Amino acid sequence: MKKTLFTFLILCLSVIVTAQEKKQTEFEINLGDTIVWQPFENCDTLNYGIKGHQYISYKPIKTGYCIQIVAEHVGKSTITATCRCNDSVSSAIIKIREEVVEPVNTVPVKPQTQSFTGVYGFYPPTNYFFVSVTNPEQNCRETYVRIGDIEAFNDGQGFDRFWNVKTGKNWYYRPDAQGWTDDVDWEFEPLGKSFFPLNSFADEVKKDNLSQYYVGMEKVLTVDCWHFFVDQEDGSVIQYWVDPVNGCTLKRQVNNEKPREVAVYDLNYRKLHFGPSFKKGLHDTRR
Which DSSP letter does residue 193 get? Predict the structure, then answer.
C-alpha cells in the first residue's frame, strides 16, 4: 500500500511540474520590424501581461492564440502569456535596436563599354513557364506560372493565387483553413505579356545605341547574358543582364543594391504539381 501511495505522489508531482512549465524566448529586432509570437502550441484560454509597453505596439491575432508585435522605440519589452488551462507560462523578451546601415559605395564604377553587334528583340515567354524571381526588399522569391489557360502567382510569403484566364475561375490559398478556396470569378489580374523584371530592359532603356551601355557577356543561372550598364540622369546606375534569345532581363541591379534576379527559369513547364485540382477533400491544406 505504501509503495502504491509513493508512486501516486511521484505521478502527481510530475503532473504539477509539467503543468507549470515555463518557457522564455528572446527576439532582437530593428525599429519598425514586425513579428508574430505564438506562446503555446495548444491552449484554449490565454492571459497576457506586458512590461515596457511604451516600446511596442501589439494586438492579438488568430483569435488570441498569437500576438503581433511592432517595434516602435528603442528599448526592451517583456510579454508574458499564461495558459489558464494548466498555468503554464511563456515569455517573450523583445529587444529593439536602431538598424545599423553599413556605408556602401552607392554607385559602381562603369566597366569599359564594347561595341554591341547583336540585335535586340523582346520575345517573352507567353505559355508553359515557371519563373521564380528574388525579391530582396521582402527577402523572398516571387513565382509566376502559366500552362495553357492556367496562371498562378506566389508572393513567397504564403500568398498564392491560381486562376483560369478562359473561364474566369480563380482560387486563393488559405493555410489556416481549407487550403485552396474558391474566389469571385474574374477577380484577378492576368500576367499579361510579361512581368518584372523580365520586361525591365525592354521597357526602361532606349535601344538606339546599345554600344554605349554594353560591357560584355556574363552568365546568370546557365544563360550567357548580354550585360548592360546604363547611366541615369540623376547619377545612379542600373545594370541589366539580358537573355539574348528572347530579350528577357534575368537580373536587374540598381547601384550596389541587392539585385532582382531570376532563380528558376523553366520555359518548358508542362505539368502542374500544385493547385486546387489536387485537393483530396474540404480540409486538404496541401499546396
Answer: S
Amino acid at site 63: T
Query: Among candidates 131, 143, 141, which has minimal Cα distance to 268?
Result: 131
pTM, two decimal places = 0.63
Instruction: Reduce the DSSP state of residue 127 to 3 states and report it.
Output: coil
At 286 the three-state DSSP class reads coil
DSSP 233-244: TTS-EEEEEE-T
Which residue from 215, 282, 287, 284 is spatially nearest to 253, judged by alpha carbons? 215
Q: What's the half-sphere exposure (Cβ side, CA atoms, 13 Å) at 30?
A: 4
Do 212 and 231 contact (CB within 8 A), yes or no? Answer: no
For 212, the 3-state DSSP assignment is helix
How far, in Å, CA of 96 to CA of 74, rounded?
A: 5
Alpha carbon 92 to chain centroid, angstroms: 24
138-150 pLDDT per residue, tens: 899 999 999 999 9
